[in-house]
Write a structure and sequence with these properties.
The complex is a heterodimer of chains A (about 110) and B (about 120). By secondary structure, chain A is mainly beta. Chain A has strands spanning about 5, 10-15, 20-25, 35-40, 45-50, 55-60, 60-65, 70-75, 85-90, 100-105, 105-110. In chain A, the strands form two sheets. In chain A, strands 2, 4, 5, 9, 10 and 11 form a six-stranded mixed β-sheet that branches. Chain A has a five-stranded antiparallel β-sheet with strand order 1-3-8-7-6, with no helix packed on it. Classes of the chains: A mainly beta (about 110), B mainly beta (about 120).
């Protein structure tokens, strides 16, 4: 059973545009939602994360929007750049537990120059 | 200041052989996690270890797979009698704390190909 569902599977955006990736979860016990960025041949790297006590978190061009009632969260990349081209994974975990993360299936982002 | 070090980066095995993947956590980290990434899929949790202890192995296949994190040396993920379906990228991550830390640092992965 997929604990975290991610869409779209792939995304093409023009340079300067906004990239939006969506995730949904079922388990209301999840209370930590990170996004990871992975370049080909590399391991995932933490990009930004949010806890459910806030509805939005922004770090530079990256923003997480969180809707607790809908059990959904999304990543927005403003002013997308070719260097942002990578695979993005959303994830969820429970703080009271150890660091066992449930990952979405990934979104391959291609930013066209 | 090395991050999480994994080796080998690439490993090719024939069906029935054994694969051993090694992971050295970041300096100061005593918690190690192994995740598997199948092609075009997200990462799936396999096992969580602390020094000399397996804390949770709920994601490990029941047979052929084992993991250890000895008092000295790297963590090792061992796959016996490999089959083609074991072909995947295996990522190790480490953290400085267990519950509540929530910040995992991943290695670059070991890509296993089973012929």
């Amino acid at each position: 059973q997929q604990q975290v569902k991610q869409s779209p599977q792939s995304l093409i955006v023009q340079k300067g545009g906004i990239s939006i990736i969506n995730c949904a979860y079922e388990n209301t016990a999840f209370d930590y939602f990170p996004w990871y960025q992975q370049f080909p041949g590399k391991g995932p790297a933490l990009l930004i994360a949010i806890r459910p006590d806030v509805s939005e978190k922004k770090e530079g061009r990256f923003t997480i929007s969180f809707n607790k009632s809908a059990k959904q969260f999304s990543l927005h990349i403003m002013d997308s750049q070719p260097g942002d081209s990578a695979t993005y994974f959303c994830a969820a975990s429970m703080m009271g537990n150890f660091n066992k993360f449930y990952f979405g299936s990934g979104t391959k982002l291609n930013v066209k120059p | 200041n090395a991050g999480v070090m994994q080796n080998p980066r690439h490993l090719v095995r024939r069906r029935g052989q054994e694969a051993r993947l090694r992971c050295s956590p970041m300096k100061g980290h005593s918690h190690v996690y192994w995740y598997r990434q199948l092609p075009e899929e997200g990462l799936k949790f396999m096992v969580y270890l602390q020094k000399e202890n397996i804390i949770d192995e709920s994601g490990m296949p029941k047979e052929r797979f084992s993991a250890e994190f000895p008092k000295e040396g790297p963590s090792i993920l061992r796959i016996q009698q490999v089959v083609r379906g074991d072909s995947a990228a295996y990522f190790c991550a480490s953290s400085s704390q267990g519950a509540g830390a929530n910040v995992l640092t991943f290695g670059a992965g070991s890509r296993l190909t089973v012929l």
